[in-house]
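Appendix B, Record 12. Input sequence as logged:
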Amino acid sequence: MAKIVISKGEEKINNIFEGYKKTELSPRGRKLLKEWRKIDFLCENSDVIKYIIRKRNREGLPVEYEIIYHLNSIIGVNEPVEATREVSGEKISRPWRQPVYGKEHHLSIVLPNNYPGAFGGNPEFVMLSDTWHPNIRATGKFKGRICLNDRDLGVACGLDERIIRVGKYLQYQTYWAIDSYPWPEDQVVAEWIREEAEPAGWVNVNEGIYTDNSKLYKTPLLFHKNYLQEIQDIGSPGGKNTGNAPITLKMN
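Logged structural output:
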């Protein structure tokens, strides 16, 4: 399916969503429409996040997305090379695996038939491109699986909020690499973070060392009054501001 063309203004809203009336949609359809509007608005007001609709249901509403992030993120590591680095004022000689960076990253979102639901109705978020992050599985049978902590997020958390969370993962502005509860998704990457990346100063969330500092969205526009009114008009509760204040992320 062709990529969604992102344009601006009320004309775009009318063109893309024309023909979808909440009174003619099923309860699930109204929820899917609401989430689509939120994703579309997020991507329209982001310089680094775009989306593609990969599959629609019988009502013509999206049930599978591909999200594209244009960010600097770690996608792997090189073979170890013996080197001497200064760590906390002390010179340490050892093999170091330097990070490999990528600029474009692809995320798949699949909405199961029982989405949204309290029992197994969580959206499936999986990275399609290579990643190297302690909360995303880097290799193996479950490569690309993302720990988003669905249990604590609950069904009220919107897809746009989850998309932002993954973006912060890719920027290394959020990660859990400690070998304790709630446990990293990828133990190999977590060990690399603790023993190589943080000591070498490649990343360190506590010291504000990230791989990317781009703004994921334009805050003044994301919570524009007209957008919130659009969301309320299709049967959702009042807009929930999660962008002007810092996002609190709970791991697992």
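Residues 46-213 form a domain with the Ubiquitin Conjugating Enzyme fold (CATH 3.10.110.10).
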